[in-house]
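Here comes my example:
=====
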Amino acid sequence: MSARRRLYGWQSRGQSNLFPRHNRHAGARFAMNEPRNKTSASNVVAWLVIISIVAFLVWFIINFRIVPSRVISANACVQNLRQIEAAKYQWALETGNTNSETVVTVNDIMPYIKLDKNGNFPECPSGGTYTIGKAGEKPTCSLGTTVTPAHVLP
């Protein structure tokens, strides 16, 4: 080995001095407040990304799966109430019973309303019960304004 290589610390056989050999067991090579490797920081970033993706998926499922099902059932209930109201008006016009004191029954409006696929009177999809009421009143659902969105006619 030439004197120049020894003087500047160059190594022979094509090895560079960029990564000098050192004893791994000689002790800590870093200060106490510096991380020993960068993998711990990258693990934290990876976990933050995973947690944010899971949080987004939970938000997406709640907003676009659970909430719309309540809205859909409320809309179906309001549509049933509209059908009942229209059937009451048709029954009142046909029978001439426009007196607001006359209580309308299910049997009275059955021919004027669209029944479900089993031939039954429509039911509230959320489990409420319909009150048909008198001839001049709007029909109501037992859930009414106790749920969001409300099951009432506008």
Summary: The chain has a mean pLDDT of 80.
